[in-house]
Amino acid sequence: MEFLEHRRTLVEDRLEAVIEGVEPSELADEVGHVALSGGKRVRPIVTMLACEAAGGDAEDAVDFGVGIELVHNASLVVDDVIDQSEVRRGVDSAWTAFGYGPAIIASDGLLGEAFELFSSEPRAMQAATEAMIELGEGEATELVAIPSNEDEYMQLARRKTGALFRAAAELGAIAADADPFAVEAFGEYAERVGVAFQIRDDVLDATADADELGKPTGQDAEMGRPSVVQVTQLTTEEANAKAREEADRALAALERTDAADTEAGEYLRDLAEFVVVRER
């Protein structure tokens, strides 16, 4: 695990440095509460692993990885406001800690810092912007056009969760100066991992213990949110099998890259296997 811990440390150190540069101090406190309160850092680690698997160095992708983590955190702030979730990662959510207005401002601040990190590379800006468009469409769909079947649910999952995962891997490949074919393959891999992650997340919301999960459970049913359990006729076992199918397709996309013989590629394969069995 030292391999991954080193990369996680790179992310944490850069996140702290970015937050320290935020002004005014009140905004720094708010964005720090969100961004530094823990989290798996899956997306930035995917960014660095994709960069290495594409022939680059992890350090080359840290800024892009931190940027996509900040975008992810900004979206969580909004999710918690919409869902009235009082806890995130075992601590008060932003709106609980600071109020609605400061929470929204914190979300804006996180996005601003993220796009500053992407600004050095036009392709990175394009990948991040496309992900933001997809994410926004996904959030809007949840509010005004709730899916009513499996196909519509899968489209929502690709927009709301898959898009940021796709961008994470694309950004890593871009940092390694990979060709468009490789960028696309890494992107498909990560998008499918993201969808598998979301399906499993829905299952955990319906079945897991809140203390073990680190956030409230049963939120999807309580809020009428379109989870795989609520929208489709799938049992939890069938939903888990659907996640497994997405993970297998992710692995097939990864095989189209040159990642096969790299240590980073092995960790990307492990991630696709892990997201379908995780308990948190």
Please mark out the parts with pLDDT under 50 across 5 or more consecutive residues, or reply none.
208-215
What is the residue-averaged pLDDT? Answer: 89
- Structure annotation, total helices: 14
State the name of the first-level CATH class.
Answer: Mainly Alpha
CATH architectural group: Orthogonal Bundle
Give the number of domains: 1
Summarize the amount of helix as a percent range. over 70%
Strand order of the largest sheet: 1-2
The structure class reads: mainly alpha
Shape: globular
What string gives the helices and strands in order?
HHHHEEHHHHHHHHHH
* Rg: 18 Å
User: Which topology does CATH recognise?
Assistant: Farnesyl Diphosphate Synthase
Ends: how far apart? 18 Å
Strand content: under 5%
Number of strands: 2
CATH homologous group name: Farnesyl Diphosphate Synthase
The main sheet comes to:
2 strands, antiparallel
Keywords: Isoprene biosynthesis, Magnesium, Metal-binding, Transferase
Pfam families: polyprenyl_synt (PF00348)
InterPro entries: Isoprenoid_synthase_dom_sf, Polyprenyl_synt, Polyprenyl_synt_CS
Family: Belongs to the FPP/GGPP synthase family.
